[in-house]
Design brief:
TIM Barrel; 40% helix; 8 strands; alpha/beta; 8-stranded parallel β-barrel
């Protein structure tokens, strides 16, 4: 079961020192398989993204991704990009730059579209109740998507306990992505 840490400024801050300290504290306990720098509010995204990449590299994180800006991900030397569910048309361009591409999906049709466009993996969400993310899909829906889609699927949304991780693993998910689990 792959692990995928996603940052949020609520927990990591939007300043260099807060971000790096938060990451270092997490990396003492665990090194996720994937990490994503996601901060939709900062005006200093490129600067913080570079700091994020540096801390992840220093701690031997295998797959370091940025959020939504594939050109910046490429320019800063990130391993990949996590596109939003409105960025399907950017999958091909990101892949052409050699980036590993994950895209957010919320329906079977979106998951199939991502697969057909060549995404390397998808997140499917929300599986469990998660702040401001709408009605959870649930484990049965996740299992159905896993059975129909060939690209790796990260379960996302409200995954904060070992029991939830075990449940999504039993559904056949490639991994789980979370903000709060790693805090």
């Amino acid at each position: 079961m792959k692990t995928y840490l996603i940052t949020d400024p609520i927990y990591y801050g939007s300043e260099h020192s807060a971000l790096t300290a938060s990451l270092e504290n997490i990396f003492i306990r665990t090194i996720p398989d994937f990490t994503l720098f996601r901060d939709k509010q900062t005006i200093n995204y490129p600067i913080l993204a570079q700091a994020f990449i540096s801390v992840c590299r220093h701690n031997n994180v295998s797959n370091v991704l940025l959020h939504s800006d594939y050109r910046l991900a490429h320019d800063l030397g990130a391993d990949g990009i996590h596109l939003t569910s409105t960025q399907f048309d950017e999958i091909t361009d990101a892949k052409a730059l050699g980036l590993y591409v994950i895209i957010s999906t919320h329906t079977y049709d979106e998951a199939l579209k991502a697969q057909n466009l060549g995404a390397d993996a998808i997140t499917y969400s929300p599986i469990f109740t998660s702040p401001n993310k709408g009605e959870p899909k649930g484990l049965e829906d996740l299992k159905e998507i896993v059975d129909k889609i060939e690209v790796p699927i990260f379960a996302l949304g409200g995954i904060v306990t070992q029991e939830q991780i075990k449940a999504v693993e039993e559904c056949g998910a490639y991994g789980f992505a979370s903000i709060r689990y790693f805090i």
